[in-house]
Amino acid sequence: QSEIRKRLIDAFTDASGEFLSGQSIAELIGCSRTAVWKHIEGLREEGFTIEAVRRKGYRIVDTPQKLSSDEIRLGLKTDFIGQKVFYYESVDSTQKIANDLSTENAPEGTLVIADEQTSGRGRMERKWHSPKGEGIWMSLLVRPEIPPQQAPQLTLLTAVAAVRAIEEAAGLTPVIKWPNDIMVNSKKIAGILTEMQAEADRIHSVIIGIGINVNQDRTDFPKELLGTATSLAIETGNGLPRSRIIQEFCAQFEKLYLLYLEKGFYPIKLLWESYARGIGSFMRARTYNGVIEGVALGITEDGVLKIESSDGTIHKIYSADIEF
Ligand code: BT5
């Protein structure tokens, strides 16, 4: 079986992107023409995209870019972020696994990555679409010595790290929409979810979940995300190795995190503002307690959004979805 698979891959490699007829594949790998179809299906299940055209045959359009912890660690330029990687083919949510690892005292910088999440989560129990092989679905564990109420600052720090990683690895410059949306051409390309384990005055751990859409094409998004979501492949026109983006993210995150621990939130705030859109504009914020409209003044030291409504009241927004 694996011998046939190998011959099939070799045949496609030799064909270098040209079509191979069913008959010639059958001869090359030594099986019947009906068996060819079964082997092609096998490759598809592994993540190969194979085009089939009548009278021409088959050709490989895209190969799976398998991730592995070795591949991620190779070429990682950090001291501790991502130095311990747990990689899974399929999980419900990497947040849950990172949370379990945290109670087992996993070291700071531990990274959990999955090729697929079957119940990826957004904020407020929303769903995060995490199809197999198409994106970066990962959770990072950190243990900063900061008061629990400052943990939201890490969401903003992570947004800066994600924007910079995408800039470096893909050559796009995304913008940030408060608090956690990373946008390219007004569509969401990445999201961040920060959760923590803490007592009243002490943080045990913060689990930062990051989802980045990488290889999806337009048809890979469910209907409800068609107008609002995008991927690096859609925006750049080509697929990208996920490991490169993960490595870049880890490097950017580590730099910012060390700066944050040493100098506090202020330098991070300045960077965040330089990538943010909508500050100074009219915004509508949908919060738990209703809608607040007004001009966005900026963020506070704690990463809270300030909106001034038309009667001059300044509202502090801790959690909301915004439109502008
Ligand atoms: C977020 O929530 O943007 C946080 C997403 C965090 C995902 C990561 S993946 C690794 C880790 N493990 C998890 O289980 N989660 C984290 P929020 O701001 O609430 O946005 C959620 C909304 O974004 C959904 O209600 C959809 O409208 C939209 N959405 C869902 N999947 C998307 C995708 N793949 N790309 C763009 N938008 C999406």
From TrEMBL:
It catalyses: biotin + L-lysyl-[protein] + ATP = N(6)-biotinyl-L-lysyl-[protein] + AMP + diphosphate + H(+). GO terms for cellular component: cytoplasm. The keyword Chloroplast does not apply. This is Bifunctional ligase/repressor BirA. Acts both as a biotin--[acetyl-CoA-carboxylase] ligase and a repressor. Its EC number is 6.3.4.15. GO terms for biological process: protein lipoylation; regulation of DNA-templated transcription. It comes from Neobacillus notoginsengisoli.
